[in-house]
Amino acid sequence: MLDLARVRALVAATRFAHLRHVSQTGSTNDDATALLGTPASAGLVLIAEHQSAGRGRRERAWIAPPASSLLFTAILPEAIATTALWAVPFWAALAIAEGIEQQTDLRVTLQWPNDLLLAGRKCCGILATSRVLGAHAWVGCGVGLNVLRPAGDAATELAAITPEPAFLSDSASSVEREPLLAALLQSCDRRFPLLADPQGVARAWERRAELAGTPYRIEQDGTGTFDAVALRLAEDGSLVVRIGVGERRVTLADARVVREPV
Questions:
Q1: Contact by Cβ (8 Å): 15, 21
Q2: What is the dihedral of CA 81, 143, 207, 227, to 10 degrees?
Q3: At 162, is the pLDDT very low, low, confident or very high (cuts 50, 70, 90)?
Q4: Residue 150 sits in the same domain as residue 75
């Protein structure tokens, strides 16, 4: 089990100092959604050792054996502009990547729209949940980060996933979940003001992802799979790609990036 007292001591001075930890829940995002907009939820971080109904984008299951990962939803300490909602996963990716690098010296890759890769394999997914009231939105940012590769039956289950996910412990000589979680929340705290400038978030994400010129294989509803070269993020977080001599916009709602087995 996570040593919550240790984490609390490290994040006490941040906007994300209110931590709630359970051994199991259905989904920390579902738990957060029920609380969004209440005064006591501002800055609350819901953490679980295991999720029985964890999921990623487009309702895909998120498999994480107990105590192997960091599974949490951080509720933003303030409401943000509804027009900035699309930027939250990109903002979170920047913060999570920074925290990982500070704690482990590992360089993760940012992949559109909401994944972090280690050595070409997915190690982290990000999924936001929100409650919108007119021009303002209360947001919970869900994170699933694979930290310690499990053994036994859990390892067999993970090996059945294609491509198999990565864990930080695959590449880091030593990694502890408590200081790592603290580093992630500290990074979220430092970067929180950036959400006031969604286009600034997009440009920062593009730079960190080294997006321009990166090849992508994309599966898009209704049109099948195609290869393209990424150019930039559009003003709403869509991916602008080059196919041949033309450009095409790939929206968040109707596409996913295909990762080939490594």
A1: no
A2: -110
A3: confident
A4: yes
Provide the number of structural domains found in the chain: 2
Condensed to tens digits (0 to 9), the pLDDT of residues 177-218 reads 999 999 999 999 999 999 999 999 999 999 999 999 999 999
β pairing state of 44-51 and 18-25: parallel
At residue 12, the 3 state secondary structure works out as coil
- Residue-wise pLDDT tens digits, 97-122: 999 999 999 999 999 999 999 999 99
Does 126 share its domain with 217?
no
The reported pLDDT for the residue numbered 235 is 96
- Side chain identity at 119, as an amino acid letter? A
Quote the distance between the C-alpha of residue 256 and its chain's center.
15
Residues 171, 217 within the same domain: no
* Strand 18-25 with 80-81, pairing: unpaired
Distance CA(204)–CA(90), nearest Å, equals 9
Q: How crowded is the C-beta side of 187, counted as CA atoms within 13 Å? A: 19
Preceding peptide of 215 cis, ω within 30°:
no
* 136 strand-pairing partners: 81, 133
pLDDT at 96 over 60: yes
Q: Do residues 149 and 221 both lie within one domain?
A: no
Same domain, 232 and 170: no
| 44 strand-pairing partners | 18
